Amino acid sequence: MYAGLIDLPWWGYVLVALALTHATIASVTIFLHRHQAHRALDLHPVASHFFRLWLWLTTGMVTKEWAAIHRKHHAKCETADDPHSPQVLGIRKVLFEGAELYRAEAKNAETLARYGHGTPDDWLERRVYRHSVVGVSIMLITDLVLFGPIGLTIWAVQMMWIPVWAAGVVNGLGHYIGYRNFDCNDAATNLVPWGILIGGEELHNNHHSFATSAKLSAKWYEFDIGWMYIRVLATLGLAKVKKVIPSPKFVQAKSAPDLDTLQAIITHRYDVMTRYMASLKRMCGDEIDRLVASHGRSFNPRALRRWVLSGEERNLAEEERRRFEVVLKDSAVLATIASMREELAAIWARSSASREQLLAQLHDWIVRAEQSGIRQLQEFSLRLRQYAA
């Protein structure tokens, strides 16, 4: 029986499968995601063409389709128009049928026309890479020639890797469970701080907060292996990084905010809101405990705290929202925290306001925070005056 050109022990075939699939996930995160969809880095034509060829062989995905679907996901995140939101479609649907959702959206001509701009449109893309079946068939034959019958298993693992880990796990669990470094406007989460199998894509909350960053890690304990590869490519002259997650800088608190303070707060708005939530979390919890004692279990304490601190309304029924509004009438503290949070977020949400108007709004917010009588708000207002551009 033909055994293939390469004879390996069983663990050797496992390592080969992991190496081949890792090359695929690296190609997805570096080329399709960070380079094509978000333009976070530029790639040398040599690197770009390698990634295109490898993805054609191992996934059959078309660059324009992938980039368009992902851009639409960001533009319509957690709405009925999101191609794969577990918050809308349910976690089971996205986790187990993520590939089917991708293929269905790839047939949407409007999506491709609106969101697929700037992707490759050369002879190779039009005449070669658009034929997905040809690419994966070549990969199948290559695996069989090199490894014999076990090559079929290796090929099957290659074909399943992206549908399971990217379409299912990242798009599903990455919007359903996990931890959040930044209070972005959708449900994106970070799954684990060390994700070698997913190439850094597991740091999904970081990505949705700073979509144009070539680096997905934000904390010292987070490891983005895709960023490591990008740095290697940059050292070799094969990549040029355009943007990374900005790190906030702090100076001695100013007596009053100025335009530089305003710009720093807008630039680091996710950091600002995350710190706001963290600074008031304990006080909010204590106040909710007091309300539970007086109202009983007529409301969900955890959901109320989440609503007060972040304004998060996902999966919140209208009846529960009305119940929360009734509860807030009995707590001037929670009402103040919620209203101040909304007003703070409005500073960077008002696109039609001038810088002078926004600065006046920021100054007014700080004055009222200092006069609120709430120690945590007073300390946070001091922190705001320390942000530097």
Commentary on this structure:
The protein is elongated. Helix content is 63%, strand content 3%. The chain has two domains: 10-241, no CATH class; 259-388, no CATH class. It is mainly α and 389 residues long.
Which secondary structure elements does this structure contain, and how are they paired or packed?
Blueprint: H1 10-37, E1 41-43, H2 45-58, H3 63-75, H4 86-89, H5 91-106, H6 109-115, H7 123-129, H8 132-147, H9 150-172, H10 204-209, H11 225-235, E2 239-241, E3 249-250, H12 259-267, H13 269-295, H14 301-310, H15 318-328, H16 332-349, H17 355-370, H18 375-384, E4 387-388
Helix pairs in contact: 1-2, 1-3, 1-9, 2-8, 3-6, 5-9, 8-9, 13-14, 13-16, 13-18, 14-16, 16-17, 17-18
* Total number of distinct structural domains: 2
How would you describe the oligomerization state of the chains in this entry?
single chain
Beginning-to-end CA distance, first to last residue: 68 Å
Mean pLDDT: 92
Radius of gyration: 24 Å
Estimate percent helicity. 55-70%
Give the amount of beta strand, in percent: under 5%
Number of helical elements: 18
Category by helix and strand content: mainly alpha
Could you provide a short overview of the structure?
This protein is mostly helical and 389 residues long. Helices cover 63% and strands 3% of the residues.
